[in-house]
Amino acid sequence: MAKIFCVANQKGGVGKTTTTVNLAAGLAKLDQRVLLVDLDPQGNATMGAGINKAKLTASVYEVLLGMSDVKTARLRSESGRFDVLPSNRELAGAEVEMVELENREKRLRDALALVAQDYDFILIDCPPALSMLTLNGLCAAHGVIIPMQCEYYALEGLSDLANTIKKVSASLNPDLKIVGLLRVMFDPRMTLSQQVSDQLEQHFGDKVFKTLIPRNVRLAEAPSYGIPGVVFDPSSKGAQAYIAFGAEMVERIKLLDK
Ligand code: ATP
Ligand code: MG
């Protein structure tokens, strides 16, 4: 049965998509069977996995509204060697259209049950908002991975996210846990980066992943080729870090079961 993780942070541009795509490809390199769910109407994860979001016959939008199912809508990322439940702008409409539906927070969870046997990991890339889409991600997941930039404002908003996660686990999904905070776009030459990173460790202890993802231009270049960074330039510092993060996740889910 797949372990399902949401990559969430309502702040924009903090590295959610880069983390989801590279973790998916990193886990695939470790022979894990992975499905990436793109839950963001921007469709960045879809494109980053090498799938043209303009040419989808079915997407996560149809799946959420019950017009298609995951087996029909999923596509293969050839470059990343994982499956993708793709998305595009259409998904923005789902937010409103789902209001009418029963169990609207649990549409994704119910849809993923169909393919849970096919994967070791399902990774959900959330949009930058605490919206109905993100709520669907949180209801479907066993755990949340929170990417954070080590900057002054990083901690702002973290309490909103933590409260949302608490509420969801109290009422809708008792399984849900924060798996960890992932420090991304880390710049060791900046004193502030180091200070915020130390603070995170002091406050959150082993909820902070050991792996640090450095700022690395190869990770930023890779999406324009439709290739995950860990495949595009495996020897780059960014790729190496995401591969190490994949290994850390494999270890961490063993503890999650206990
Ligand atoms: P959004 O909230 O819009 O969905 P996001 O949280 O998914 O954004 P990304 O799209 O992953 O964030 O990253 C934002 C930008 O930063 C992108 O241009 C990406 O290529 C770049 N980026 C992400 N991580 C790194 C890194 N470690 N090193 C260098 N650039 C990075
Ligand atoms: Mg994104």
What features would you describe in this structure?
With 258 residues, the chain is an alpha/beta fold. Helix content is 41%, strand content 18%. It has twelve helices and eight strands. It has helices at 16-29, 44-48, 60-64, 70-73, 91-97, 107-112, 132-140, 158-171, 191-204, 217-221, 229-232, 237-256; strands at 3-7, 34-38, 75-77, 82-85, 121-125, 143-149, 177-186, 208-214. It has an eight-stranded mixed sheet with strand order 3-4-2-5-1-6-7-8, sandwiched between helices. Helix 1 crosses helix 12. The site of adenosine-5'-triphosphate has 19 residues, from helix 1, strand 7 and helix 10.
Largest sheet: 8 strands, mixed
List the quaternary state of the chains.
single chain
CATH homologous superfamily descriptor? P-loop containing nucleotide triphosphate hydrolases
Q: What is the typical, i.e. mean, pLDDT?
A: 95
**What is the CATH C level class, in words?**
Alpha Beta
How many strand units?
A: 8
End-to-end C-alpha gap: 16 Å
Count the helices. How many?
12
Name the features:
single chain; 258 residues; alpha/beta; Rossmann fold; eight-stranded mixed beta sheet; 8 strands; 41% helix; binds adenosine-5'-triphosphate; binds magnesium ion
What is the element layout, followed by pairings?
Blueprint lengths: L2 E5 L8 H14 L4 E5 L5 H5 L11 H5 L5 H4 L1 E3 L4 E4 L5 H7 L9 H6 L8 E5 L6 H9 L2 E7 L8 H14 L5 E10 L4 H14 L3 E7 L2 H5 L7 H4 L4 H20 L2
Parallel strand pairs: 1-5, 1-6, 2-4, 2-5, 6-7, 7-8
Antiparallel strand pairs: 3-4
Adenosine-5'-triphosphate (ATP) binds next to helix 1, strand 7 and helix 10.
